[in-house]
Structures are given as C-alpha cells and as structure tokens.
Amino acid sequence: MAEAALRKTRLTVLAVHPVASSYWTGNPTPYPGDEEKVAEVRKSAESAVAAVAEKRGEKPESITVTAISGLPAHALIEASKDSDLVVVGTRGGGGFGPLTLGSVSSQVANHSSCPVVVVPTGG
Fold first, then answer.
1. b/e code 25-64 from CB counts within 10 Å (16+ = b)
2. Partner of 4 for a Cys bridge, out of 11, 34, 56, 113, CB 3.0 to 4.6 A?
C-alpha cells in the first residue's frame, strides 16, 4: 500500500478462495457454497485493507478489492498480465513451515508477466 501511495497509482487486492482443480483439465472445480466463501474472503480482505489504510493515514489513488474462487497461483498469474507489479507473501497455510518459498509464491515468481515482490512472512 505504501508503494502504491508513493507512486500515486491504483492498488488491486486480489483475494482467492482456493478450490480443488479437475484431475483431467487442471481447471478450478466449483462447489456449492463457494459463493458464500468468496463473500467471506472479500469481507476479510476489505477489513484488512481498511485497517492498514487507517494505520498508515494515507492510501493509494484507488484501492480495489476483488475476491474470486479459483486456484491462487493461476489467479495471480492471470492478474499479472495487466499489472505493473505483483506482491505475494513467502508462504500461506500449507503444512511445510520450514520452506522459505511456498508453492503459490514460487509459481507466481516463475510465471508472472510482470515483476514480483515476495514479502517474508510477518513482513
């Protein structure tokens, strides 16, 4: 958020409710109840954005929060096609704590269409 405010540019926060992928196609497989989960993810992301903006006292030109169901790495890679920069954390909720780079951040860093910044956990 600080970088977007400094550069007077827009910021898009993409929150992804992860879903399973089809074994045969690799595409996301939606299930009943996903829409409610996306609404929860959106609300959580909006709350986090509001808290950070309030704490900072300044914010980018515009902030958009988008929430979808899908495969997190694929969604971020797709979003990178019309972005100037993608920012991801080092790792998410997987069970491999000692890893320095999680599967999503690794995929995004390797396949993004724009530069990627990987922020360490807790950073």
1. eeebeeeeebeeebeebbeebeeebeeebeeeeebbeebe
2. 11
